Structures are given as C-alpha cells and as structure tokens.
C-alpha cells in the first residue's frame, strides 16, 4: 500500500534509511562483527577472482560494489553485463566465483549465465530481494537484501540495499581473510551515519524539485558526470532519468567528456556533476566548467567537505567506498520529479516490466 504517497517510487525512495538500518540489524552481530554464513565466506575466500554478473540498475550496483571487495577483501573483481557475458565469456581465472546481484531473482539474462557456469561446477552466489526466487534457489549460496517489496519499476531501495549488502559482505570476507583494511573499518558506524545522511538527503525534496523546474522541465537530453564511484552513480542516475521521464540521459566518466562527448553540449544542456571524491573533485569541477563554457547548465551535487559557492546541493561527507549510498538519492529524486512534472505514470513507465524474464 502506498498510503499517502502519490507513487510507490517516492515511498520507496523515502524508505531507504529504514532499509539500511534493517540490513544492519539483519547482518551485524551485537559485538559489531558482520554475520555471514561461514561456508559462503569459505567459498569466497577460495576464489582468486569474483565475477559480478547483472543487468541494469543491479549492474550499476555491482560496479559500486567491486572496489569494496578489492579494497576490503583484497580479491580482484570484474563486473559484467549478464546479456553479454553468457555469449561472450571472457577467459576465466583459475578459481572464479560468480555473484549475481538481482532485485527480482528472475532475470533471464542472468539465469542463462547461471546455468552455464553451474554446468562447469563453478561456485555461485545470488544476492536478491526475493529469497524464494529462481536465482536464489538455483545458486549455491543466497543472501537477502531485506528491502521489502519494491513495486515501482524504477529500482531505488533495492539498489542501495544491494550496495550496502555488498559492503557488509566485503567487510566480512576481508575480516575472514585477515585483511587489515577490513579489520580497521568500523562499517557499522559508517553505515549508521549513512542512514542519517540518506534521511537528510530525502528531506531535500523541495531543493531538488526546484532544480528540476529550472533545468530539467523541458529538456530532451541531460548528462551526468563523475569519476570513480561518482561515475557509477552517474550511470545509475542517467538510467533513472531515462526510464521514467524519457529524457535522453547519459552518464559519463568526467574525464572522457573531452574525448568526444563534449561535442554534444549546446546552450542549456543540463550537465549534472557528482563530486564526492576528494582525489578527483578538482578535475571533475574543471570538466564541468568546460561544459559551462560551451553553454551547459551545470548542476553540481558535491559532498560537504568539497562544496564550493554556487553548488546546487550538498551531499553528506561519507566514507568514499560507500558514497553511492547517499549520492544516488538526489538523483533518484531528480528523475522522480522530472517524470511527475511531465505527467507520466512514474511507477509504470512505458515499455518496461519489473522483472525481465526473456532474454
Ligand atoms: O531484478 P534485476 O535486478 O535482476 O533486474 C535487472 C534490471 O532489469 C533492473 O535492475 C532494471 O534496470 C531496473 N528496474 C531499472 O530501474
């Protein structure tokens, strides 16, 4: 039931802090240690490379998750689109393990990969919001997202639940392997702070609606730019805008603009810059300025510690590995208000289904 909400999507955006807290209750023991099944950790620790295979929003969540496993658990990770992987399989490492991030657990593109890798007796883990789903049943291991039913076609709370669950798993794996970076990270504290940050972000609805009225009301295209994790957020932000408001939106690695894309910038083209990484903040700002010099309407979403006068919205300062959990929220709201203001059915965009059970 969506209660007083006009659309499920808005309700689900608002639920994200509660989902994150629920995940902490589900996966963190009272002594602060992450509680993951020992046989799963054993299988993951035996792998020399983790292969994430996913689609759409879950693919973007996989991109955000990869650096967590590399940094906290010292295991190489590659991230693949399910629709490509099954038919153009790369040369696998000696001891691969497959992780399928999937909100529905029913995505056909992923299932065909699962069938192929199981035929080779390779270990598989499904992380899904539907514990009774096909992919949860058929994989060797399954973890639940605890996000509650997601009704809107555009995924929001399942995305943040996927990213958060992966951070917990990466920390647990790192501790299991004795990696100092995992042992030193107080993830419970960091994620609790992020739940608060998400709350302040969802409370910024008026600011975001004003940005939409100023910059996105009638535009036919829009670009999101960022570097590192901010780039992965840019990809997901663009998908959100595309799927529910039918704006031609693209996410770009900010440094790539000058290698071609900048040719697309015209007067008033919206360019949304996402800046949460201190290492690359100045570079992304410079890239945004280059688009402004060509007439773009730049909207800057920057972390508090990196903010500059004239920025449009302040993002919370959070642990760099976890920044997508907070940075995506204003982007979800940008898409929501653009769709709503244009009079579309936000929850049921044209041509799309909640779970895609055909290849
Ligand atoms: O159920 P899945 O996460 O496997 O679905 C994959 C994509 O179809 C899905 O993430 C899709 O991109 C989102 N619903 C878009 O918001």
UniProtKB/TrEMBL annotation:
<keyword id="KW-0677">Repeat</keyword>
<comment type="subunit">
    <text>Homodimer.</text>
</comment>
<dbReference type="GO" id="GO:0004360">
    <property type="term" value="F:glutamine-fructose-6-phosphate transaminase (isomerizing) activity"/>
</dbReference>
<keyword id="KW-0032">Aminotransferase</keyword>
<keyword id="KW-0963">Cytoplasm</keyword>
<feature type="domain" description="SIS">
    <location>
        <begin position="212"/>
        <end position="349"/>
    </location>
</feature>
<feature type="domain" description="SIS">
    <location>
        <begin position="40"/>
        <end position="179"/>
    </location>
</feature>
<comment type="function">
    <text>Catalyzes the first step in hexosamine metabolism, converting fructose-6P into glucosamine-6P using glutamine as a nitrogen source.</text>
</comment>
<keyword id="KW-0315">Glutamine amidotransferase</keyword>
<feature type="active site" description="For Fru-6P isomerization activity">
    <location>
        <position position="354"/>
    </location>
</feature>
<protein>
    <recommendedName>
        <fullName>Glutamine--fructose-6-phosphate aminotransferase [isomerizing]</fullName>
        <ecNumber>2.6.1.16</ecNumber>
    </recommendedName>
</protein>
<keyword id="KW-0808">Transferase</keyword>
């Amino acid at each position: 039931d969506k209660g007083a909400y006009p659309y499920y999507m808005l309700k689900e955006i608002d639920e994200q802090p509660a989902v994150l807290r629920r995940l902490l209750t589900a996966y963190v023991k009272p002594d602060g240690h992450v509680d993951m099944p020992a046989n799963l950790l054993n299988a993951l620790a035996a792998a020399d490379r983790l292969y994430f295979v996913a689609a759409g929003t879950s693919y973007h969540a996989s991109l955000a998750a990869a650096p967590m496993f590399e940094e906290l658990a010292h295991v190489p990770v590659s991230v693949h689109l399910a629709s490509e992987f099954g038919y153009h399989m790369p040369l696998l490492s000696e001891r691969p393990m497959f992780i399928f991030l999937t909100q529905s657990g029913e995505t056909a593109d992923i299932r065909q990969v699962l069938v192929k890798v199981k035929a080779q007796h390779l270990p598989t883990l499904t992380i899904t919001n539907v514990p009774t789903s096909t992919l949860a049943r058929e994989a060797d291991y399954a973890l639940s997202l605890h996000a509650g039913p997601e009704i809107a076609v555009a995924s929001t709370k399942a995305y943040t639940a996927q990213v958060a669950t992966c951070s917990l798993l990466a920390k647990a794996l790192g501790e299991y392997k004795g990696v100092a970076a995992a042992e030193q990270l107080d993830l419970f504290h960091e994620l609790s702070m992020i739940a608060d940050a998400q709350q302040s972000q969802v409370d910024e609805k008026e600011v975001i609606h004003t940005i939409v009225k100023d910059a996105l009301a009638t535009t036919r295209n829009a670009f999101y730019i960022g570097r590192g994790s901010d780039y992965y957020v840019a990809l997901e932000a663009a998908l959100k805008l595309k799927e529910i408001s039918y704006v031609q939106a693209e996410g770009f690695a900010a440094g790539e603009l000058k290698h071609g894309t900048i040719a697309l910038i015209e007067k008033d083209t919206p360019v949304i810059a996402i800046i949460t990484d201190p290492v690359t903040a100045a570079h992304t700002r410079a890239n945004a300025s280059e688009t402004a010099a060509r007439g773009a309407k730049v909207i800057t979403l920057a972390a508090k510690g990196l903010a500059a006068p004239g920025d449009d919205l302040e993002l919370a300062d959070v642990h760099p590995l976890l920044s997508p959990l907070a940075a995506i929220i204003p982007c979800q709201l940008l898409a929501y208000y653009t769709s709503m203001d244009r009079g579309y059915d936000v929850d049921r965009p044209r041509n799309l289904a909640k779970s895609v059970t055909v290849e």
